[in-house]
Amino acid sequence: MFLFLSESDLEQKFRVTDSNGLDPSDRYDVVISFKSAEDLPKMDILGRGDPYFVATINDQISFTSMIVPNTSSPKWNNEEWIVRNIPMNAKLSVTIYDKDDEKVIDDYV
């Protein structure tokens, strides 16, 4: 007995997917550019905060920005994060913190 399959049948039957069920071709290389934040709340008793951010993709990989001292409107001047091979449905989250040298854990803004 012989079974004849067209090329499209083969693609459908033997489609390669990752652990999330996505086709590997549904992955992208991206450049994420971070510019600024405005009017952040005052976090320090004396002076303004020292903000920085942590960006995370799918809670798996992260990027931490530089600290911008003594400001409530930080500018990161298009600080870039180049990320390769991320799935099309990836979730980006960005959290801003205030750097405190006197504390073990920085304040969440």
Give structural notes:
There is one protein chain. By secondary structure, this protein is mainly beta. The chain has a single domain, classed as Immunoglobulin-like. It is built from one helix and six strands; from the N terminus they run H-E-E-E-E-E-E. The protein has a four-stranded antiparallel sheet, with no helix packed on it. Strand 2 and strand 3 form a beta hairpin. InterPro entries: C2_dom, C2_domain_sf. Keywords: Calcium, Metal-binding. It comes from Rotaria sordida. This is C2 domain-containing protein.
Summarize the SSE layout with pairings.
Elements: H1 7-13, E1 27-36, E2 51-57, E3 61-64, E4 75-87, E5 92-98, E6 107-108
Antiparallel strand pairs: 1-4, 2-3, 2-5, 5-6
Number of domains: 1
Poorly predicted spans: 1-7, 9-16
The name of the CATH architecture is: Sandwich
Q: Average pLDDT, to the nearest integer?
A: 81
For the termini, the CA-CA separation is: 68 Å
From the spread of the alpha carbons, the general shape counts as elongated
Broad structural category = mainly beta
**Sheet with most strands:** 4 strands, antiparallel
- Provide the CATH topology: Immunoglobulin-like
Strand percentage: 35-45%
Protein name: C2 domain-containing protein
Domain C2: 6-109
Keywords: Calcium, Metal-binding
Organism: Rotaria sordida
In short:
The protein is mainly β and 109 residues long.
Q: Which key features would you list for this structure?
A:
single chain, 109 residues, mainly beta, Immunoglobulin-like, four-stranded antiparallel sheet, two-stranded antiparallel sheet, disordered N terminus
